[in-house]
Amino acid sequence: MFVAGGNLVKNTSYKVVIPFYGYAALSFLLSTILIMQNTVAFTQHYFNPYTLAITHTLALGWGTMIILGASHQLFPVLIEGKLHSNLLAHLSFYFAAIGIPLLVFSFYKFNMGIVAQTGAILINLSIICYIANLIMSISKSKKGNVHAIFAITAAFWLILTTGLGLLLIYNFTYNILSQDSLYYLSFHAHMGIIGWFLVMVLGVGSRLIPMFLISKYENKKILWFVYALINGGLLSFIPIIFMSLEFGLYLIPIVLIGMGIILFGYYIKQSYSKRIRKKVDGQVRISMVSVAFMVVPVLILVGIITVFTSMNNVKFVLLYGFTIFFGWITAIILGMTFKTLPFIIWNKVYHNIAGLGKTPNPKELFSTPIFIATTAAYIIGFVVFGYGIVSTDMLILKIGAVFLLATALLYNLNVFKILFHKAQLK
């Protein structure tokens, strides 16, 4: 059980949540292996088979799968109710679990035929099940709040992203859109990055980080401003890209989204300064660092528009994408995994035997030294590989790739240590 707003909320079954975490961890490892094997792709144009395969492994297999899993557990807390259907949650997992490797394999081989089309359809079915579950859950709940609105909005941006992705896959074969697929790539990517990842992370992060800090700070007005700025920025991007307006107008959505991120950073800073728990653990610290990382791709994008001549400056576009997927998205996942998963597994293992003896704390289910090593490898890999993209130095890129691979291996070691934990009464 979980206490939220003074009421008891029944947790989602661990059988729903655990597969998402395991799948995401393995996808993270696969993405770093692909990077290690295809490092040269980061010295070429971003629209190449290997970069597309790596990006979608990170976006779908790593980021999306772990968010789907975590949100099945956390959404009932946000609405102070129950998840509507475990069956829909299971279907969401299985559709995505089959569809993602089909799509990634197709990108890697750059064959947009029946395999890619099937993968894209399955992924969309997964998201439809997920959204239906959220809508039915919130319709049965008596509680609605800004955090839940963030989550629902992010889910709708996600289905728009995957829906457009499905059209783009078919567009390779049937020319169903007025332009080629590359023309829509930027909008497809930013719907996913801003609409899905950023909106969801800000909505859930604004609930979880203060909760883990045991902070007394709460200001929903600020969060509504953040919500309006981020979504307004993304909506303003639509006419600019599709009406082929002046390139400098891209600064409008960037400024709006940047203001939203800065305001969210202020919210987290206030939560930190008014916390009751003075000692902040490493998991929460790296989650807070991820907030600072959000500013990095915004600054890079401003540089691409104002300093460089066009978006064709390939290495900075690659750096922009890298700082998103291996910057704030990965950072917050590395932190929040070890704040949420141990509680889920602890509840699974010890719920019925807690009174029979002294049980370990949830934080004892994973190795702190391995977590510290993961964090160190991640920071080194992020900095070195980012520098390698800018310098186009293959040796630097390989060194950075080694540290990113080490990050994924250590992360998997700790995740599966938690997942396979057996009861240990003292």
Description:
β1 and β2 form a beta hairpin. The protein has about 425 residues and is mainly alpha-helical. The protein has helices spanning about 15-35, 50-80, 85-110, 115-140, 145-175, 180-215, 220-240, 250-275, 280-295, 295-305, 315-350, 370-390, 395-420; strands spanning about 1-5, 5-10. A two-stranded antiparallel sheet has the order 1-2.
Please tally the helical runs, counting DSSP H or I stretches of 4 or more residues.
Answer: 13
Identify the strand order in the major beta sheet: 1-2
Uncertain segments of ≥5 residues (pLDDT<50)? 1-9
Order of SSEs, N→C?
EEHHHHHHHHHHHHH
Structural class: mainly alpha
Gyration radius over CA:
21 Å
| Largest sheet composition | 2 strands, antiparallel
Fraction of helical residues: over 70%
Report mean pLDDT, rounded to a whole number. 87
Global morphology: globular
User: What fraction of residues sit in β-strands?
Assistant: under 5%
Number of strands: 2
Termini separation comes to 23 Å
